[in-house]
């Protein structure tokens, strides 16, 4: 059974400002450098006319994982993530996120939406983690959901600082 990951973050900046950040190459390079963790990297970064598609690799260190996970997959969990954003249409942009753990069954899939909220904006993720392993899949899903949410929170904090520093 999959585990849902609802996640949202509000920003005082306008939808236009947040979307401009999400489609800025410098934003992505600085974000992965600051909050990506050890050995994190951008593998692909494609920016189009108001769109972006990013593939990155990050790791969850083994010391942050319960033993049931490290018994199945020793060492750090390598996570390959993709994030894409479409163009801004009015006061809304949509996209998609995926994440998969290398060497182990399991993935995160979801949609993301940027929209206006009061005088600012909100980014909402509607995702789910699925680890199709009998008996222990649900427990591993919970661990991955928790760690991925922590990564999202760090990225949200980075984005808030990045937006504030640009006026």
UniProtKB/TrEMBL annotation:
Organism superkingdom: Bacteria
Protein name: DUF2505 domain-containing protein
UniProt organism field: Rhodococcus gannanensis
């Amino acid at each position: 059974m999959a585990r849902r990951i609802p996640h949202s973050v509000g920003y005082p900046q306008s939808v236009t400002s947040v979307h401009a950040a999400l489609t800025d190459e410098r934003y992505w390079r600085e974000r992965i450098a600051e909050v990506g963790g050890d050995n994190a990297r951008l593998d692909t970064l494609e920016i189009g006319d108001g769109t972006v598609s990013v593939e990155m690799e990050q790791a969850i260190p083994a010391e942050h994982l319960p033993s049931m996970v490290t018994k199945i997959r020793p060492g750090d969990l390598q996570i390959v993530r993709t994030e894409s954003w479409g163009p801004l249409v009015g006061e809304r942009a949509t996209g998609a996120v995926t994440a998969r753990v290398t060497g182990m069954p399991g993935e995160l899939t979801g949609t993301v939406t940027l929209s206006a909220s009061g005088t600012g904006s909100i980014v909402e993720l509607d995702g789910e983690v699925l680890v199709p392993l009998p008996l222990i899949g649900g427990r591993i899903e919970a661990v991955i959901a928790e760690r991925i949410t922590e990564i999202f929170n760090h990225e949200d904090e980075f984005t808030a600082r990045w937006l504030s520093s640009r006026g």
